[in-house]
Amino acid sequence: MTTFLETRNLTKCYQGQTVLDDVSMTLDEGEVKGIMGPSGAGKSTLIRCLNGLVPIDSGEIYLGEKRLGDKHTNMDKVRSRIGFVFQDFNLYTHLNVRRNVTIALRKVQHMKKADAEAIAQQELARVGLQDKLEAYPAELSGGQQQRVSIARALAMKPQLMLFDEPTSALDPESVGGVLRVMRELVQEGMTMIIVSHEMAFIQAVADDIVFMVDGRVLEEGTSEQIFEQPKNQRTREFIRGLATEAAGAPAEQDA
Amino acid sequence: MSDFLAFAWQHLPALLRGLQYTLLIWVVVVVFGFIFGWLLAVARIYGNPVMRWLAIGYIELFRGTPVLVQLFIVYSGLPNIGIVFTPIVAAMVAFSLNTSAYQAEYFRGGVGAIRSGQTAAARAAGMTRRQAISYIVLPQAMRIVLPQWSNEVILELKYTSIAFAIGVHELMGEAKLIGADTFNYFQIFLVAAIVYFVVVTIFTSVLDGVERRYALRQ
Amino acid sequence: MIYQKILDNLPYLLNGAGVTIGLAVGLLVLGLVVGLLLALGQVYGRPGVPFLATAIERVFRAIPAVVLLFLFYYGISGFYDISSFSAAVLALGLRSAAYQSQIFRGAILSIPSGQMAAARAAGMRRSLAVRMIILPQALRQATGPWTNEALSELKDTSLAYTIGVVELMRQASYIVAANYGHTLAVYSSAALAYLVLSLAASYGLNALNRKLAVPGFES
């Protein structure tokens, strides 16, 4: 496998606080990487740095041969090929579902209207929302909005998908539908980085798990290593905490 | 530039004399606008149907027509039915009538924003309805609408300049006179603009201070 | 009968009302364009631009409309033969721009930051994201306060009377001059005309707002 993305010694400070501290990791093509850790660990900041939404203070990010932040790297172009799914969906509230999915195709990729709409239909069908083309975000449930936002990202034919706690803002009954869509992506071989607290899901799909605390990578390894033989005390406690929580909450029942 | 400064210096005393009238009109208008505004608001919220419709009619009429028309009606229209004011009093009357309609609407919004529990609590403590309204509801409402109210009051300060149109020698009227005397209209209006800017800025920051101190955030 | 006289003079009043509407539309369009630029400069401008935009806004908000009217009329006619109508559009339009910029800035700042993040994540340049995502939402947020501003400017067009624009008030004053002793009736008719214009404008703008509304942006 070839290395698709690599970070070297990333640091990021925000208002005097170190949010990322010397983070290095690699992601192979087709790999699914899970990022876990308590809140405030810097997980969201890390994946926002990967597509340049948040500028880094020092370190390097390589996407293939390209170094992000270089003068001749067009970040807008890079971003258009990295799908990003937000915790709170961030659908464009003034546009209906169809326009949410097509607007970047039309304005960034300068695609013809008919082509863009064909892609929108196809991607919305994939997430099971082909009948919601004309609905506005305010008319959709949280789970539906999140599936639209995944379709919106997939429509750009991304080479990498970044998920920032995609199910954290959802009510329990909506979680399953979103995870099912993500699982299909895994099966299609999409390269993905997933920040999530959905332990069972991450355990099932991730090739590799990064455990972060206080902006640092505390532990990294396969799902068996992290879940069954965590080396670090903090990791162990965190996993145990999640497991207890999951026992009381509805899990990914339909996956 | 030094010509302009000399010109400004020469005519500043006359403008400042005008400014006294500007401020006099403004203070009267603010006081009466406040009183009428509250009376209208109370009539509109708590009055019987006749009072309510009279208040609504008044408010809509005065908010739907330009203050300049109101000024002309008060100054040169009312004499047709035997009511005669001097220019400065006409300005005070017209602006007070005008601003009370706007203030009434702000006050009404403030009263509407008060949670119903407040009146209930006052009544439970043995206050009459009238007491509950005057001691609990109105003071709170005033503090809620303080930002809009100060905004309206500053607007009114600027609108006093319209009084020159009926011959009041306030700041703008003095500027116009000096312009006619010296044919230096642009320069004198520039000086007047600077004076207005300074005065409005001062009173805006004073009212901002009052707001910070007393405004109730909902 | 004075009312017969007013009826006879109705064409002049209508003509004046036409000029009033022209003034209002002209100044509101100028205010919209400049106000938007000021608001964008305040929110997204390079260092120095927000300060400059805020200074312009402050100045135009602190100076009374009639002073601005005279300042622009006499200031410009010193080197260019400007009509009183154009001077009024310019003076009142720039003042309105100051008020409108405040409305637009508030609306832009009220859009959740996730909207910009999502647009940037999809590869949009910042300017494109502002144009396609932020502004369409902000403008819908602004329709309510903007309608108030428009109605207030409609009434303030009457101030253009003071520099000699022959709008509704000026036409009314001509009729007054020709009919001694009937000032109250004539100016009351003018007031009625403004009231009708205000109601019509309010009705029209609210209908437009409803048309622009999408679910989640009902005003």
Keywords:
heterotrimer, A: 255 residues, Rossmann fold, 38% helix, 24% strand, B: 218 residues, mainly alpha, MetI-like fold, 0% strand
Please outline what is shown here.
The complex is a heterotrimer of chains A (255), B (218) and C (219). Chain B has 9 helices and no strands.
What does the overall shape of chain B look like? Answer: flat
Provide the succession of SSEs of chain C.
HHHHHHHHH
- List segments of chain B where confidence is low: pLDDT < 50 over at least 5 consecutive residues: none
Biggest sheet statistics of chain C: none
Q: What is the CATH-assigned architecture of chain C? A: Orthogonal Bundle
Please, what is the average pLDDT of chain B?
92
Radius of gyration of chain C: 21 Å
CATH superfamily of chain C: MetI-like
Class by alpha and beta content of chain C: mainly alpha
The unreliable regions of chain C are none
Order of helices and strands of chain B: HHHHHHHHH
CATH C-level of chain C: Mainly Alpha
The percentage helix of chain B is over 70%
Q: Which pair of chains forms the biggest interface, and how many residues does each contribute?
A: B-C, 38 and 37 residues
How many helices of chain B does DSSP assign? 9
Count of discrete structural domains of chain C: 1
The total of helices of chain C stands at 9
CATH superfamily of chain B: MetI-like
CATH fold-level name of chain B: MetI-like fold
Percent in helix of chain C: over 70%
